[in-house]
């Protein structure tokens, strides 16, 4: 059970099952919150991956990749706006913890 008495929720980060934490500042907490919000927004078929940002020696920045059919036909700017809106809402003032967000439609895959 989680702290609120409900079932404990998990998220997969780099192939490992990690307890879902919210409101925290650790890499894992931020990555989990971002991944959860993006999956809720883009649906279960979306590819959402998070990992430590390259070159972040403190291990606090998150790199995000989203591939979703909901981004098909959108310009690069539109895709970024959509993804960053979700990130800002999820992190509520902590969005600077995300260093890079790459957003692609499934129509861009080859």
Could you name the CATH class? Alpha Beta
Q: Give the DSSP E fraction (strand runs of 2 or more residues).
A: 25-35%
**Could you give me the name of the CATH homologous superfamily?**
BolA-like
Give the N-terminus to C-terminus distance in angstroms.
42 Å
Under CATH, the topology can be stated as: GMP Synthetase, Chain A, domain 3
**Helix-strand pattern:** EEHEEHE
Structural class, from secondary structure content?
alpha+beta
Keywords:
two-stranded antiparallel sheet; 110 residues; 29% helix; GMP Synthetase, Chain A, domain 3; 3-stranded mixed beta sheet; 26% strand; 5 strands; 2 helices; alpha+beta
3D structure, described in words:
Mean pLDDT is 84; it is low at 1-6. The protein has helices at residues 27-42, 76-91; strands at residues 10-13, 16-19, 47-52, 62-68, 98-105. It is built from two helices and five strands; from the N terminus they run E-E-H-E-E-H-E. Strands 3-4-5 form a three-stranded mixed sheet. Strands 1-2 form a two-stranded antiparallel ribbon. The radius of gyration is 14 Å and the shape is globular. The protein has 110 residues and is of the alpha+beta class. The protein has a single domain (10-108), classed as 2-Layer Sandwich (GMP Synthetase, Chain A, domain 3), CATH 3.30.300. Strand 1 (10-13) and strand 2 (16-19) form a beta hairpin. Helices cover 29% and strands 26% of the residues. The N and C termini lie far apart (42 Å).
